[in-house]
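User: Here's a protein and a ligand (manganese (II) ion). What would the complex look like?
Assistant: Let me lay out the input and then the predicted complex.
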Amino acid sequence: MNATSLTEPSHVKRTATIERKTKETDITATVNLDGTGAYDVKTGVGFLDHMLEQLARHSAVDITLRAKGDLHIDFHHTVEDSGIVLGQAVAKALGDRAGITRYGDVHLPMDETLTRAAIDVSGRPYLIWDVKFSRDKLGEMDTELFREWFQAFAQNAGITLHVANLYGENNHHIAEACFKALARALRIAVTVDPRQAGRVPSTKGTLSV
Ligand SMILES: [Mn+2]
């Protein structure tokens, strides 16, 4: 892969598919980092579908995801494993991470709610999650599962991710602003920066997971 091709994403397919099957879930995810935000998401958890559709739409990363999980137990495995598989797909699509912007951050407003997200596509997984909910459930989904999804995604995508809800009242807005903030920060961070000229944006020379 030469530097010229890396500055022109149309010449480098940054797509990946991951399939993962356990006794708890069976999940397939495909991403295209240079997409238009197209999505086709079915997890069996309505609120999670709504969130992952927001993630695709606002990151401009195309996301196809199918999950069959043990929802008769609860939503925990399906939510967490969806984060794992989507994170792995993003990591695979990033490849050696050469030429990317690497950092991205955003303040994302949604009516009365304001949420901040900052990303380093570092190869060093880390999540700071400073988000509290005043309700236990949104729809049928336990609000404690949002942290599980973000932890799984950050860990498997190989990104450092800080999410902080600065203020807000409505729990639907608080959750949705987290996903939209991730989307916008991710969009910036994974975008190919022509000034990197295909170099890995690190003085260490590697951002591999
Ligand atoms: Mn909504």
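Summary: The chain has five helices and ten strands.
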